[in-house]
Design brief:
mainly alpha; Growth Hormone, Chain: A; 2 domains; 0% strand; globular
Amino acid sequence: MGERKVNRYLTLLVLALGAVSIYLLPYLRWTYYDTLVEAVNLSNAQFAATMSIFGVTAMIFYAPGGYLADKLSLKKMLSFAFLSTGLLGLWYATFPGFVAQMLIFGLWGGIGTAFFWSAMMKVTRTLGSSEEQGRMFGLLEGSRGLVNVIIAFVALYFYGKMGESVGGMQGIIVAFSILCIISAVLAWIVIPNRVEGASDSIHLKDVGTVLKIPAVWIIALIVMTCYSVYIGSTYLTPYMTEMLGLSATLAGAIAILRTYALQCVAAPTGGAIADKIGSVTLVIGICFVIIVAALAGFVLLPASPSIVMIALVLMLLFCAAIFAMRGIYFAPMDECNVPKHLTGTAVGVISVIGFFPDVYMNAVAGTLMDAFPGAQGYKYLFIVMLAFAIVGTVASIVLSRMIKKHKQEKTALDTEK
């Protein structure tokens, strides 16, 4: 039993490393925008187009990726995803032309969702029993945060040592590509050939089976509302500088704290609490209540430096609740008795809906900021986020009651037997 625990935690660590590695390359612009756009020799519009094609192909392949995760070897899927991403990264490091970069980003988006995302989620679900789902998913999210922090700061250190130049940018891309290839090797070694719930007889009709499970749609709504709020939270940094008077340096440090430190701590903590009390869905509901309270505070309080300490406390509570929920919002599949051999298909369906905010949320925020400059624009954004959080709260209550009713019916049936 001890060896099995070590193996599953090693598997989680490899998944976390791979999960970070596979998205480092397409999201380099978040950290190195100016140098990267100079290095790839594109206009800002062309540079934005590469990320757009990434988002489009990622969205298209969520559902097919879920089906593949129930049909193919998870070891082969994950290893292929990491290896191909790394090889494409080595090509990207040569800074090819615009058409080639569009192809690279399109492949990154498709590979990430077709061969990685649902496969990772299915492996994670099979690592723990029904009583350990919160812990497994929470540890995965927390490990991703920890690995992200380590890699990000090491990369920044060497980038600085290389003079923050185009050559340094090329070195970063090559290093991240090699990290993907290393992840492929580790996945091939660590991920078992077959996992619990694997099946060779998945058919397209099973997609219809998943679509008929009401809980799948409710989980998708929970993920969508949480992810909408999460994207909105990225605007807290400019809110702190523009409205509350914090320096850019201090606001940046707080952003790192709320993004990485809270992810490392809140995600596994939320999972552990969920397993302790025996209900992932209840913890999700509590997280939504905290988010609603914090956002109500941002809406009602004046946007001025006088409330900076209160705003910081609200922000930390708000972000802790988001990361605690992000760590476990796929875990209710077990409570809802989604068949294990259909886990990948269910994750694919949930992800198509759940991550759709990538399409609209930034556009909503940008439109509000342009139409209502200053504090009013932020207030309206917080109201939109609050509306999503309230819908999520209702969805979590509905899901909790559905699970409770199912358990009562099962108990009654067992009693009759």
